[in-house]
Amino acid sequence: MRALVQPAYGPPDVLRFEDVPPPPVGDDAVRVRIRAVSLNFGDRMMLLGRPTLLRPFVYGPGRPRKRVVGHDGAGVVEAVGAKVTRFAPGDAVFGEMSSGTCAELAVAAEGRLAIKPDGMGFAQAATLPIAGITALEGLRDAGRVSAGKKVLVNGASGSVGTFAIQVATALGAEVTAVCSGRNAAQARALGAVEVIDYTQQDYTRGDPRFDVVFDLVGNHRLSERRRVLKLDGIYVASFGQGGGALLGPLGRIAQVAIRSIAAPKRLTVFAATPGSSEDLAQLARWVEEGALTPVIEKTVPFDEAIEAFRDLVGGHARGKRVITMP
User: Fold this and answer.
1) How far apart are CA 79 and CA 69, in angstroms?
2) Are strands 194-197 and 174-179 parallel, antiparallel or unpaired?
């Protein structure tokens, strides 16, 4: 099968198309013929191998352990393992997949897939697994967002941020979005009742008025970020950028983690786990109901996938980048 592989760490120029064997199907796995792939910030981190401190433990010490790039995908079930009961060949599905999704075929555990609704396109479905689940788990589980809560989303124009505005709104919260002025109209259209242009105003200098701060950037000192929280408010750190090549954001994440020991109910470092079938289905229901609309910034065919990675590495995201398969 044709796939986009990463033989080494580096810029998108290290990527190349190759013919590789199809991934095997385990007893509890599902093999999917991919129709669409969406890119995430984690794909950028894995491509560059940054922060380099994580290479021995996560990415691979000398070169990437995972050759085929991509994590999110949507497509049609081609084969199922002997123990699989929820899916059958011909089902349209989406989810996070254990083998790389920038390929004609990919494999996922049964519990990491959900049925794609008929009214939702493959491109839309492919955007949900990582970014959508990060927003859902970060707000609902880590932030304990519920109806009537006031939520601030810092980094509201990126792939997770655009979902976070809508997920918080769907949970009944009132959302304030922090983004640049060029993305203000988009944030309001997604449901934000207030938008703070970070180029003109520092959100940390406001009054304590938020029940939850969902921070996807981490661009202020922790004491400043906490300043706008209510007395019983919750600060959720979920950022992967910033810092140097060696540590990246790990230093700032560690600071939050250490401080959270003394205030576990108010400070938390959040990293999403692969979405369950139930949570993926919840996101799909919101899409069907019109409560959630994936923001797709750019769609390119598979032959231009390397260019999509160039955009991912060099651009300032305003939504999701999607690769469509022939």
Assistant:
1) 21
2) parallel
